[in-house]
# Entry
Amino acid sequence: MRSFRVAFSLLFLALFSGQVIGPSSAAKKSQPEKKTKAEKENDLLDFNSIKDILKEDQLQKQAQKKKSKGDKLRKKRIKRNVTRYNLPKEDDIWSFLSEYWIVKNASVLKWEFQKPDYGLDLYLNGVLRALGLYQKEFKILLLNTPALAHAALPASSGEYIVLISVPFIQVMDLTKLEISILVLESFYRSDLRIVVKKVRDPELSKILGKNFYGKELKLDAFKKTLSNYDKVFFNKGFTFQEQFEITKKIKLILKGHPKYWNAYLSLLKKINTLIRTNALYSKYNEIYPSPEQQIRWLIPGVPLGGLD
Amino acid sequence: MIDLPQLLIKLGTINMVLLISLMAPAPLGASTLGASTRDVASNEKSAKLKLVGVYYFMPFYGHLHQNPSRYSRGITTLGCGHPVKVFTSEGRSRGEWDIVKASGRDGFLRQDFLSPKRPPCFEKKYPIFVQKFGLGIDDLFFWGKLYDNYVFGKVKLP
# Structure
């Protein structure tokens, strides 16, 4: 009995000892391996890195979008700033220069004075319509001086700037029709670009329409052009060839309209008489040569004495 | 006894004086012009005004006038693109001259100087060029006067 008890105790101990001391190797093999801390961390890291990549991807796209938008706005701003340094184009500069010249010569041209409404705009409108000349926009400036009888200043396309002296009109007692024909002559002088070719400085064509961002702007070409206005309208004037071109053009336009043709002839005769009899207009021939010759071009074969 | 020749001379002289006073035109001085336009201006201003809309000044430079006359005093100088409020008197349509408010000041501007849309302005197109050109205050003043003195015309297609 005693040996049985000892044996049983030993057996009992053998069976349960493993639990107290530790599992057996078999028990160890059957259970799954637990991950080490490092492995666990690795797993966690991998997941996070995928998440980060995903997160970063979305943010990066947003960041790129914002950056490209910012770049576009910056480029637009720079471009807008650069365009502020544009020089006027050929078509834009002439009205500006002509009006600047008129403003600077206000005391010489004497255009600022009170005058009655002659109704010139309406009458001229009618004449131009009768001749079939549409889409014309004009600015006529009346001068209170005989210093400049009449002039067609360079202007932007489709626009005309014409100066006419009131004393010049009054001394010859010109009719509205004759004044309109004189203005028409100025329009064609402008259309044929005769004045532009005479006043333009050669350097001006090289700079018009360009951009001077980051460079120094030299106004010499503009100043020389403006001084040429003085030369042409107060000193040098026009050539016979240029006058012939104008007369030929007017002759062509007015040939079908006897009333206007006669008015043009009458105008030239009046001017011819004026310059021969009035000392104030003796220089007229130097600027617009010569009314006498113009009459001959209109009516070839007219003898010298038969003009009055 | 009546001295006939002397009487005839006296009558003739009186007649001549009457004839001259009837024929002589009223002086077109600024005071006469100013008085009539002042009446119009004060009438216009005292009448109820109706806002037509915001318009934009078209010429390079111009003057806001005290009265609806190109020769009336200039209140201020306006540049191209300057916005102005246009008014009409109640019951009246716009005429040759508009009643306007510009830069907080009331005055008159020609209707054909105003556009409902912002116009293409030379100074806006080439700002640095105009700045470098160096226009003085007197240049701007005379430029405004220039547009008061022009006779404008346009021949449109029929």
